[in-house]
Amino acid sequence: MAQTTDQRYRVAPVRPRGREWPFPLNLYQSAVGRKWVMALTGIGLIGFVIVHMVGNLHVYEGPARMHEYAESLRTIGGGLVPKGGVLWLMRLGLFTMFVVHLHSAITLSRMSGNASEKAGRISGAKKYEGGRDHVAATYASRTMRWTGPIIALFVLFHLADLTWGWWLGDDFVSGDPYHNVAESMGYLPVAIIYVVANIALAWHVFHGAWSMFQSLGVNNPRY
């Protein structure tokens, strides 16, 4: 049965909003605020990836240089703080950024899905009919739902491999990053995992950078 004009364009009832958080936490309750948070935490995570990559390039300079680099991380702060104290604070900050970035991405996806569903119910239209939205999206944006979980799983594997030593087992030597990297990369399946994970990371950063510029308004047509 065809819908009447009133039925087709009826306005959905307004539901009462949940309790509002205090400022500035209330900014995170809006989609715009969460996009900003995801963009800023993304910048922080990309910065870490770059610094981490540059630091690990010391592995090509030999065991002594790699050990020197690793030891310099543990002694940040000199004698003002306990050895490894600043490093653990940096790890805590990195973990917090990762969790907030993940939470904002998941909740934004849900908010977008709910908004699309409500819009479809109000207008009576099928948003994805004809596949035009799917065609318009870039390949990178369509695969974000896969690259994100792949990276998250890889982070856990990376920690188990070279930080906790669970993967190498008896071959793991605490405090000898050069040995652990060489042993780990000596296994072809592990090397393949790192290659695949880095490809997924590249795709994720590619779309993430575009999305970040959108959220911050950098690529506005007026500019």
From TrEMBL:
Stored Pfam families: Sdh_cyt
Major location (coarse): membrane
Q: Which GO terms describe its cellular component?
A: membrane
Q: According to its UniProt record, where is this protein located?
A: Membrane
Molecular function (GO) terms listed?
metal ion binding
Concerning InterPro entries, the annotation shows: Cytochrome_b-558 (IPR011138), SQR/QFR_C/D (IPR034804), SuccDH_FuR_B_TM-su (IPR000701)
**Any keyword Mitochondrion?**
no
User: Which regions span the lipid bilayer?
Assistant: 36-55, 88-108, 150-167, 187-206
Which keywords does this chain's UniProt record carry?
Heme, Iron, Membrane, Metal-binding, Transmembrane, Transmembrane helix
Q: Can you say what this protein is called?
A: Uncharacterized protein
Q: Which organism is it from?
A: marine metagenome
**Lineage from the top down?**
unclassified sequences, metagenomes, ecological metagenomes
